[in-house]
Amino acid sequence: xxxxxxxxxxxxxxxxxxxxxxxxxxxxTMVNPYNGKRLRVELTRPAVDGFVFWTKNIGPFLDGLAQVxxxxxxxxxxxxxxxxxxxxxxxxxxxRLTAERLAGVRDRWGPRAxxxxxxxxxxxxxxxxxxxxxxxxxxxxALRGTTDEVVVSFxxxxxxxxxxxxxxxxxxxxPDLADKRxxxxxxxxxxxxxxxRLTLCTQPDxxxxxxxxxxxxxxxxxxxxxxxxxxxxxxxxxxKGNRPGCLCAESRDIGDYDSCPHGCVYCxxxxxxxxxxxxxxxHDPAGESLVPRPLTGTxx
Length: 300
What we know:
By secondary structure, the protein is an alpha/beta fold. The protein has a single domain (2-281), classed as pyruvate-formate lyase- activating enzyme (Alpha-Beta Horseshoe). It has nine helices and ten strands. It has helices spanning 11-14, 16-25, 62-70, 95-109, 129-143, 159-167, 177-193, 224-231, 273-281, and strands spanning 2-5, 27-31, 38-42, 50-55, 75-80, 114-121, 149-154, 197-200, 216-218, 251-253. The strands form two sheets. It has an eight-stranded parallel β-sheet with strand order 9-8-7-6-5-4-1-10. Strand 5 (75-80), helix 4 and strand 6 form a beta-alpha-beta unit.
């Protein structure tokens, strides 16, 4: 089993101590947010093939990565680095510092252990297509040699996303397919020039049908082949995406919605930053579950 930690919240940035405590315990408890049912997730070496860590700030968990590796677990870090202004991303580190940290991860575990996410692509008056072309090029230069893949996607107006953007007074636009493909084409050429392949996360209508060295294909963010390369042995996992068009390998996510206090106004996983901060304040690093919720039933 591959464990995802986590596309619902930033475990490396905010919940690293809890995660390591759960590795020591050999399990964690997940709570279904819709029915309150508790689920036990085994985190032992026999049960877990590897981890995928999703984060905007790997800094607090650099020592944690070493502890994960020392326990014999391979991992891949899916790290978002966008350079977006503070009006959209309120608390992420400066991208130059992040580039240095990711280079350190590469030095210890190789470039297959790192994936850069330029995600999401948000178009506003302050971040038009020209801004993205220039910013992406600067980031790609800084991350050259650190990874061989950059994953992108355009902002999608999920309910929480639309509400948070409106509350922040951010006016954004969703360009038509032709404009999106034109931008993707330019970004793919830049990525290829810096030794990376550009891939697209779960937006199949935008995948480049021609492909090629400077094209772009679909992403596999939970990628058993990449984890196998990091591990140095073959890991088997069937494809089982989370939504239509998703090509991820089957995994179990151990995060929780409405628990990330970063405050990115485009976030699809947080109803409001205040609510996330309240839940973060209730977090117990020694607890079985990430954040307390009303529970029904027993762990299964």
